[in-house]
Amino acid sequence: MRHVLIAMVLAVAASMAARAETLQTAIFAGGGFWCVEADFDGVPGVVDTLSGYTGGDLENPSYDRVSQEDTGHYEAVRITFDAETVTYAQLLHVFWRSIDPTDAEGQFCDRGPSYRTAVFVLDAGQAALAETARQQAQDRLGQEVVTPILAAKTFWPAEAYHQNFHETNPLRYSFYREACGRD
């Protein structure tokens, strides 16, 4: 019995290790993080989404501080995904279709530096895929895409009340999304 238990524990550990090897991270800023998080939560292969702040130099930023628009931070979403189920290129496709990449001043009704769009890349592979996807979006739109591709900086999780806002506050979220013209 003891050997069976040990074998089971080892099998579970091996399975978890294999899964951990296929998990990857993407970071996208697409205006207000509530909508970006909701857009990616429904994508098969997305394991987790986390709203937060990145791109600036202020450590441990808060929503109130970032909203003052002088920290350099963007509202962004960190996405953990299973690369065996969904690729980074597929996530980029979702991202480009969730934003207005021609607007340098924010997104929809959210205006200001913290609501700008950006793709934050973690390595050269992501950078190459992001550049290709940006060019494809520009060709498709026939307009200049102003969304930058930037090296990822420290990602700071947003306050708890911002996480999964579309699930915890569905009426307020639906009103906000519709009023802003995101769909």
Structure description:
With 183 residues, this protein is of the alpha+beta class. The chain has a single domain, classed as Peptide Methionine Sulfoxide Reductase, Chain A (2-Layer Sandwich), CATH 3.30.1060.10. It contains seven helices and eight strands. It has helices at 2-22, 33-41, 63-66, 88-98, 124-141, 165-168, 170-180; strands at residues 23-30, 46-54, 74-82, 106-107, 110-111, 117-121, 149-151, 156-157. Strands 7-6-1-3-2-8 form a six-stranded mixed beta sheet. The longest helix has 21 residues, at 2-22. The chain is globular, with a radius of gyration of 18 Å.
| Uncertain ranges | 9-18
Q: Summarize the biggest pleated sheet.
A: 6 strands, mixed
The main sheet orders its strands as 7-6-1-3-2-8
Return the CATH class: Alpha Beta
**How many structurally independent domains?**
1
- What is the fourth-level CATH superfamily? Peptide methionine sulphoxide reductase MsrA
State the helix count: 7
Average pLDDT works out at 89
Helix content: 40-55%
Gyration radius from CA atoms, angstroms:
18 Å
Structural class call reads: alpha+beta
Q: Which CATH architecture would you pick?
A: 2-Layer Sandwich
CATH topology descriptor: Peptide Methionine Sulfoxide Reductase, Chain A
Instruction: Give me the count of strands.
Output: 8
Taken from the alpha-carbon principal axes, the silhouette is globular
The ordered string of helix (H) and strand (E) elements is HEHEHEHEEEHEEHH
Strand content: 15-25%
End-to-end separation in angstroms reads: 57 Å
